Amino acid sequence: MKKTPLMAAAIALAICSAATAQQFQFAGFQDVETAFASQQAEMAQLKAQLAAFQDAVADPAQAPLAVDGGCCTTCCSGGAYADLEVLFLKNYESDGTTRTGSGVSGRFDFEMAPRITLGYDSGCGYDLRLRYFHWDHNGPVGAFVDTYNIDFEIAKEVCICDVAVEFSTGARYNEYRHRDANNIGSLADEYFSGAGMIFGIQTRYCVCSSTLYARARQSILVGDSEDPEDGNVRNDVVLSQLELGTGVEVDRCIAGMNTTLRLGVEFQDYFSYEDEDEDVGFFGFVLGGTVNY
């Protein structure tokens, strides 16, 4: 059979079309293989991330700190907690502690004072706590200061931008005894006992793996004041206390418990505690820690 030019052209076109279809089919199969390999790699990465998350849940000590809306939270927040602070405070007075006329000095050194707090954190920002503070030390030549506070507070923490802000209020009971260095032989030259309200605010800001804090507490107290030297008793007096502190904290989850280490400075001012119009104050350093159960 004799092939015409038209028939030869048709045969050549059919051969080229079959080769092109086979080439396209081969290229499509390679794309499917590539996409499948990519999905397998993504699945392996997701499995690794899931395994790491399961390990963190099983062992909270390995879990990192979390950030919730810019506020500092931890992997194990909420529950009962105990806070122990050791304050190294020095006593100051508005009229000074040195009596040059008597030739003696009533200056105190930096002395240790405990502050213990027991509380419960709801995990939703609410906090109930009971706090005890006591500074009781003798100075030179018979001087001494003995004071303690018992506080009960309820607090609420909110997040404002990148800062955790805690507002607190509650009740405080205070007793205070004092004797100057030049009043040797006297039990005390000033005594006060009373109770009232306490208000506080604390801010916490996360910086890298630590937290900067600043706090203030103001209490307004009513009670009775007495000068044992002359027997003068003043009933229904109003006094107040101010506490200011700042420092740095480091939070870590250890064995499922949130542990906080704290280092800071603090100033306390007891307004009009001496001779009806003289302030008494404390200034020093704070070393503390919190364990959240």
Main sheet summary: 10 strands, antiparallel, barrel
Low-pLDDT residue spans: 59-71
CATH architecture of the largest domain: Beta Barrel
Strand content: over 45%
Counting DSSP H or I runs of 4 or more residues, the number of helices is 1
Structure summary, number of beta strands? 14
Q: Tell me, what's the shape?
A: elongated
The radius of gyration is 36 Å
What fraction, in percent, of the residue positions are helical?
A: 10-25%
Mean pLDDT: 81
CATH superfamily of the largest domain: OMPT-like
Strand pairing plus helix content: what structural class?
Answer: alpha+beta
Could you give the distance between the termini?
A: 99 Å
Query: How do the strands of the widest beta sheet line up side by side?
Result: 3-6-7-8-9-10-11-12-13-14
Give the class-level CATH name of the largest domain. Answer: Mainly Beta
Quaternary form: single chain
- The topology string of helices and strands comes to HEEEEEEEEEEEEEE
CATH fold-type name of the largest domain? Lipocalin
Number of domains: 2
Describe the structure.
The structure is a single chain. This protein has 293 residues and is of the alpha+beta class. The protein has one helix at 5-58; strands at 66-68, 71-73, 79-93, 98-99, 104-105, 111-121, 126-138, 144-160, 163-179, 190-207, 210-227, 232-254, 257-274, 278-292. It folds into two domains: 5-58; 66-292, Lipocalin (Beta Barrel), CATH 2.40.128.90. The strands form three sheets. It has a ten-stranded antiparallel β-barrel with strand order 3-6-7-8-9-10-11-12-13-14. A hairpin with a 3-residue loop joins strand 13 and strand 14 (278-292). The longest helix is centred in the first third of the chain and has 54 residues, at 5-58. Mean pLDDT is 81; it is low at 59-71.
